[in-house]
Design a protein that fits this description.
Layout lengths: L9 E5 L8 H9 L4 E5 L11 H22 L2 E6 L5 H9 L1 H20 L5 E6 L10 H18 L3 E4 L5 H13 L7 E6 L12 E5 L2 H7 L7 E3 L17 H11 L4 H17 L12
Parallel strand pairs: 1-2, 2-3, 3-4, 4-5, 5-6, 6-7, 7-8
Helix pairs in contact: 1-2, 2-4, 3-4, 4-5, 8-9
Bound molecules: zinc ion (ZN).
Length: 290
């Protein structure tokens, strides 16, 4: 059974790189049936950014990639921007804690401004390291994570969180952090979720599940909101580090093949969750599109 006409097919979290496959990877996604990508910024240089100007150049690269993908593939692309929390490890070592934190906060402010200017739809990835970091850096990561929530509150936008995999306690803690800053938990996305947490146990925080076959089977009947993502890295030096960009459309096709109720189920991650969390309307591929 083909993908239902008019239904968007959305990868909620991927990266593209000017030195990787770039637009070609997006073309593969489109050919497989994908319609929209959430394109998250990343460091494109061997050394992570240290200054606000480094971050501005990085964000501009992401924006140019998004424009090229839109122009050359017709896909919808939503830009998600923030300084990556783990950048602080290298930045503190290079320029010291105070300059590193200043640049990080200024980059969060810049991302918030781009959201208000509608050049981006959310802050991300922000959060915590998924591995032990030097003891002098850990509190700085916490401090800037808190600041990211304040910026998301001011920009009135969703916030996409990077962290280790979370259990219900972790979700509740994240929801509490959001409320402290006046951010609704329903606008907080836990990206790269690798275990199913039912909606009744996330305290309102929205999981974006890695689109592995087994995990998709476990979550596809959940009422939502939830997303699917590949976290595609577009890094030729790390093939297979994450899922390929064609994965979400393939999983969607497998769900569609099940027939009864498939369209309803697919509308949860691809339509209703996007509208609810990002407050944007998506359109799927029309009957005359390729
Ligand atoms: Zn990512």
């Amino acid at each position: 059974m083909p993908l239902p006409r008019g239904l968007p097919v959305v990868d909620h979290h991927c990266h593209l790189s000017p030195s990787g496959e770039g637009v070609d990877a997006a073309r593969r996604f489109a050919r497989a049936g994908g319609t929209h990508l959430f394109l998250t910024t990343q460091s494109y240089t061997p050394d992570p950014p240290r200054t606000l100007e480094d971050y501005r150049a990085q964000f501009e690269t992401t924006e140019r990639l998004a424009e090229r993908v839109r122009g050359e593939t017709g896909l919808g692309v939503f830009v998600v921007l923030a300084p990556y929390p783990i950048d602080l490890v290298a930045a503190v070592a290079a320029v010291g804690p105070s300059a590193a934190v200043d640049a990080h906060r200024a980059a969060l402010d810049l991302a918030g401004r781009w959201v208000r200017e509608r050049r981006a739809v959310a802050l991300g990835e922000v959060g915590r390291a998924h591995f032990p970091v030097p003891p002098e850096v850990a509190p700085l990561i916490e401090e800037t994570f808190r600041y990211a929530f304040a910026v998301a509150h001011d920009a009135d936008c969703p916030i996409v969180v990077h962290s280790a995999d979370l259990d219900p306690t972790g979700f509740r803690e994240l929801a509490a952090r959001a409320r402290e800053s006046g951010v609704e938990p329903g606008r907080v996305v836990k990206h790269f979720a690798r275990s199913r947490v039912p909606a009744s146990e996330t305290d309102g925080v929205v999981p974006s599940y890695l689109a592995k076959r087994e995990l998709v089977r476990q979550v596809e009947h959940d009422p939502g909101p939830w997303f699917l993502e590949t976290d595609f890295l577009d890094d030729p030096r790390r093939p297979g580090a994450v899922l390929d960009l064609a994965t979400v459309p393939r999983r969607a096709e497998a769900i569609a093949a099940a027939g009864t109720g498939a369209e309803e189920r697919l509308s949860v991650p691809f339509l209703r969750s996007v509208e609810q969390v990002y407050r944007v309307k998506l359109e799927g591929r029309g009957p005359t599109a390729p």
